[in-house]
Amino acid sequence: SPGLYIVATPIGNLGDITLRAVETLRGVGAVACEDTRVTGKLLHHLGIKKRLIRYDDHAGEADRERLLALMEAEPVALVSDAGTPLISDPGYRLVRTARERGIAVTSLPGANAAVLAMTLSGLPNDRFLFAGFLPNKAKAREDALAELAAVPATLVFYETAPRLDAALAAVAAVLPGREVAVARELTKRFEECRSGTPQELAAHYAAHPPKGEIVLLIAPPGETPAGEIDVDALLLAALTEAKP
Ligand code: SAM
């Protein structure tokens, strides 16, 4: 039936698409996507041929209105290049307006790099805060980290390989002593998840420049970095034992 179907797609491994997502993509009248070549390739792999409509970060009011009119008449899927639409990807205004106009909106669960990294990192997962991409400029980046310093949750950021060194340097400066994890190339051949202090990870990636897509995670305040000796606790234990 007509409406908007938000469909998550794989983040690297083409096997990571649900049966329902495939069925939905097969059933819709059109697919709105960021890049028609990227989505064209995925649909080709699935053996599906559909009308593709570009809807990316540059989409304006008129593009949105055209899509909204279409989804009042037939089912329309929204996908992004990879993972879950709207999560650091286009679609927020489209979904908001569709809901305001009483258009049926449904969302299908699927791959998401932030949640996947959270499950893999070994960092506390009872509370986590997804904060998207850190700002590009050094001062703004440090300010953003400082603003989140007291949040009692694991912090999750999207990063890119060329910016990882700058991000780790900022974490080392603003949140020294926090355990950090770098989850890279998730679901792909060279998947890795590495943890340590920001200084340790900065040294590692200076020697081995990272490639590919990255999620950066930072432990909540008060967690002891992995592999680092908690001198305060040792001292306290020694002092307590030494008591007459
Ligand atoms: N909507 C996507 C999702 O649900 O994960 C995220 C889109 S955002 C524009 C792209 C960023 O997601 C990358 O810079 C990286 O931080 C992260 N990402 C996407 N795929 C990844 C992967 N396979 N491994 C690690 N991080 C990934």
List the helices and strands and how they pair.
Layout lengths: L2 E5 L11 H9 L2 E4 L2 H11 L4 E4 L6 H13 L1 E4 L13 H9 L4 E4 L4 H8 L7 E6 L4 H11 L5 E7 L3 H11 L5 E5 L7 E5 L1 H10 L5 E6 L12 H12 L2
Helix pairs in contact: 6-7, 7-8
Bound molecules: S-adenosylmethionine.
Outline of the structure:
By secondary structure, the protein is an alpha/beta fold. The protein has helices at 19-27, 36-46, 61-73, 92-100, 113-120, 138-148, 164-174, 198-207, 231-242; strands spanning 3-7, 30-33, 51-54, 75-78, 105-108, 128-133, 154-160, 180-184, 192-196, 213-218. Helices cover 39% and strands 20% of the residues.
Provide an overview of this structure.
Its EC number is 2.1.1.198. It is an enzyme of class 2 (transferase). Its main location: cytoplasm. Belongs to the methyltransferase superfamily. RsmI family. This is Ribosomal RNA small subunit methyltransferase I. This protein has 244 residues and is of the alpha/beta class. The protein has 9 helices and 10 strands. It has helices at 19-27, 36-46, 61-73, 92-100, 113-120, 138-148, 164-174, 198-207, 231-242, and strands at 3-7, 30-33, 51-54, 75-78, 105-108, 128-133, 154-160, 180-184, 192-196, 213-218. The strands form 2 sheets. A 5-stranded parallel β-sheet has the order 3-2-4-1-5, sandwiched between helices. Strand 6, helix 6 (138-148) and strand 7 (154-160) form a beta-alpha-beta unit. Helix 6 (138-148) packs across helix 7. The protein is elongated. The N and C termini lie far apart (78 Å). Residues 11-12, 80, 82-84, 87-89, 112-114, 158-160, 183-188, 213-215 line the site of S-adenosylmethionine. S-adenosylmethionine binds at residues 11-12, 80, 82-84, 87-89, 112-114, 158-160, 183-188, 213-215.
